[in-house]
Amino acid sequence: MNPSRVWLITGCSRGLGHALAVAALARGDRVVTTARNPLDLAALTAAHPDTCRALALDVTSPTQVTASVLAALEAFGGIDVLVNNAGAGLLGAIEETDEAEIARCFEVNFLGALRVTRALLPHFRARRGGQVVFVSAAAAIANYPGFGIYGAAKRALEGAAESLAQEGRPFGLRVTLVQPGPFRTGFIGASLAHVAAPLPDYDTTRGKFARTLAAMDGRQPGDPARAAAAILAAVDAERPPLRLVLGAYATDKARRTLTAAQRELEAWTPVAAATEFPTP
């Protein structure tokens, strides 16, 4: 059994972040939970007054990130595991999406996670260890029409995480990217923004995807509590995975994407190999 850990989890008001906080607290870990409105976390802190703390945190605010990370470190004397769960979707075709909508999506899903991570890295370096979990998305495995910006933000996050895993390895940092499929959370409802100026020409692509999401809401096959258990298992592992794909849908999607990429790579290898200077 692993010793009790201290967690900092962003975006705990609902969904996967809430389920993960519940699971960690249930096994005796200590958790600093965060949400834009800490009143949303009152039930968690009331149920676990000695092991749970709640902080206000909007990851798009650099000053609030700094203050919250300091408060989190003071709450239990350190942090062992950071989970970057806070995020929000954006549904819109590339042409439909304006600059402000793009900026907001990247602020929440990419820059916000980096802010919190960078604020904790000095602590992890000083103690020669720690874990960072980034919650990504199936859109980062292979994207959908209408999720161009959201998927791009998650892929940017994955690229940063790949580098961080290598940069932090000498001082004991462990990094895991979680790629969940459709889980029964509030993402499609409360956490999914729609572009302000949709165009009729994209109804058969972005519109079809939007209707698919709406029809799925409340009937997603993924159980957030079981996802939380899987993340706990990855964190506890001697060698945690860089990517943890969650759910049958995402697993099948990842397998099909890798197979298609392998076939395309092999088909175009002769063309690619011909681009180098001739061997003397």
Keywords:
280 residues; alpha/beta; Rossmann fold; two-stranded parallel sheet; globular
Write the layout of secondary structure elements.
Blueprint: E1 6-9, H1 15-26, E2 30-35, H2 42-47, E3 52-56, H3 62-76, E4 81-84, E5 89-91, H4 99-127, E6 130-135, H5 148-168, E7 173-180, E8 192-194, H6 203-216, H7 224-236, E9 243-246, H8 248-273
Helix pairs in contact: 1-7, 3-4, 4-5
Your description of this structure?
It is a single chain. This protein is an alpha/beta fold and 280 residues long. The chain has a single domain, classed as Rossmann fold (3-Layer(aba) Sandwich), CATH 3.40.50. It has helices spanning 15-26, 42-47, 62-76, 99-127, 148-168, 203-216, 224-236, 248-273, and strands at residues 6-9, 30-35, 52-56, 81-84, 89-91, 130-135, 173-180, 192-194, 243-246. β1, α1 and β2 (30-35) form a beta-alpha-beta unit. α1 (15-26) packs across α7. The protein is globular, with a radius of gyration of 20 Å.
Count, helices? 8
Helix content: 40-55%
Name the CATH architecture.
3-Layer(aba) Sandwich
First-residue to last-residue Cα separation: 59 Å
Q: How many structural domains does the protein architecture include?
A: 1
Run of helices and strands? EHEHEHEEHEHEEHHEH
What is the name of the CATH superfamily?
Answer: NAD(P)-binding Rossmann-like Domain
Strand content: 15-25%
Oligomer: single chain
Number of strands: 9
Q: Briefly note the structural class of the backbone.
A: alpha/beta
Strand order of the largest sheet: 3-2-1-4-6-7-9
**Largest pleated sheet:** 7 strands, parallel
Low-pLDDT runs: none
User: What is Rg?
Assistant: 20 Å
Mean pLDDT: 96
CATH topology: Rossmann fold
Quickly name the level 1 CATH class: Alpha Beta
